[in-house]
Amino acid sequence: MSCRTGLSERNGLMPQDLDAAVQRRRLRTELRRARARAGFTQKEVADALGWSPSKIIRIESGQVGLSRTDLKALLNLYKVTSGPQVSEFVRMAEQSRRQVWSAYRDALTREFLVYLGFEASASAIKQFENMFLPGLLQTEEYAREVIRALSSPEVPERTRERRVEARIKRQEIFSRPDAPQGSFVLDQAVIFRHVRSAGSGTGIMKRQLARLLELSEHPAINIGILPFSFGLHLGLRGPFVILEFPDPEDEEMLFLETGPMSVMTRESHDDIAPYQETFWEIEAKALTGGEMRSMIKEAMASM
What residue spans of the chain are helical by DSSP H? Predict the structure, then answer.
């Protein structure tokens, strides 16, 4: 979606099911474009509206919400007066305040809640994991053990259970009619690493691997296993996710896992490109189809 050709010229209104995170990103992008077309610097906008320069900087960086009054003041200054354009800006601002995942604020970090918003609106999810199964592919019992192991001792049991609940809820994304295309590349270590609770034996891991075999048949899910023989690559720095979105105006985003429930967001092409190239390379070399299923069965047999 771009004001460069006119908001009303791109099939009318914005999709209604985009998450607030995507809408906030679009809103700040379109406001920057509108300011640039009007020929204003950020300081000139602040002076014209009697705002502090930091206010317009925070608005354009998405750090703060935008009231209807402030939005209309900006649009008037930028001479955005077309009814359909104004309506779409207003709708973006309203939808950007929706908090679909806000029910889990008691258990998840703010940055991870933001990530979930983008994930829910993605048309493609490309993920590499070198430690554990991706959350979108985990069974509930596997998720519970991973979350328990990675949580600090002071995290209450209720909080850990809420994290499990949120993780399983995320998986509903692949039950939607417009499910994104999920491409997951797993390091070989992921399927051979034992995940179990005290006294549970290997049952949790075997059931997880059986579930992985089921998911490999899902039309929206592609799973590949990167064998140890591939050697070193950028992904060994840590897990990463690249999200793509339905609208070509919404550029890809890169998320780097920095810890339990923590992610680092990157939007610059220079940051994303090396990971995109790495993903293409490891996806091409990963075992898929019968070879992938044979390795999973081998891992199950070894347990």
Answer: 20-38, 42-49, 53-61, 68-77, 83-95, 110-121, 140-150, 157-170, 188-192, 203-215, 269-285, 289-302
